[in-house]
Amino acid sequence: MTPIRINWVKMKNVQRIHQRLYALGLGPLIGRIILLLTTIGRKTSQKRVTPVQYEVIDGDYYIGAARGVKADWFRNIQANPSVEVHVKSLHFKGHAEAITNQKRIADFLGYRLRTHPLMIGLMMKMHDLPMRPSRAQLEELAGTLALVIIHPTEASKEMLG
Questions:
Q1: CATH superfamily, region 8-100+143-160
Q2: DSSP 24-88
Q3: For the segment 26-79, what is each residue's pLDDT rounded down to a tens digit?
């Protein structure tokens, strides 16, 4: 399996577009798959906002890190797990759990394949995998990724209803 080649400079431009769409009040439109994650910079202590894809599972927000443990936002969470989330028209605080366990990440990939077979299947093709990879292939891929689960704070849970 060859590593996926993504031009991260171009990805930053796409992320800026997502941030602008939220700033224009269009969060409910793009918020079905994109949320804005605010972390605290591990070096600067400044707030850092990153648009990321997500899934809601049992009230928690799951976010895969395509760059794995090299993603700046993932490393920020490892240093400080307190985060803020802007999704659709909602804002809430949460505690982020950083996960590198291959089996748990493979479980998440399997979930995403079941809920979004075309989109995630195409992502698998980008990793030189079949659109419906085996469990072993998912676990191998999971070794290059990372996962974050955001648990909304108790006060936020009341707000989220």
A1: Electron Transport, Fmn-binding Protein; Chain A (2.30.110.10)
A2: TT-HHHHTTTEEEEEEE-TTT--EEEEEEE-EEETTEEEEEETTGGG-HHHHHHHH--EEEEEET
A3: 666 666 788 999 999 999 999 999 999 899 999 999 999 988 999 999 999 999
- pLDDT greater than 60 at residue 112: yes
Let me know how long the chain is.
Answer: 161
Q: Name the helix (H) or strand (E) containing 147.
A: strand 146-152
- H or E element in which residue 117 lies: helix 117-126
Ordered strands of the 82-87 beta sheet: 47-53, 34-40, 82-87, 90-99, 146-152, 60-65, 55-57
Question: Rounded to whole angstroms, how far apart are CA atoms 15 and 32?
Answer: 15
Q: What angle do CA 21, 27, 31 make, to 5 degrees?
A: 115
Distance CA 37, CA 6 (A): 21
Say whether pTM exceeds 0.85. Answer: no
Exposed / middle / buried, residue 21 (Cβ in 10 Å: 0-12, 13-18, 19+): middle
Three-state SS for 90?
Answer: strand
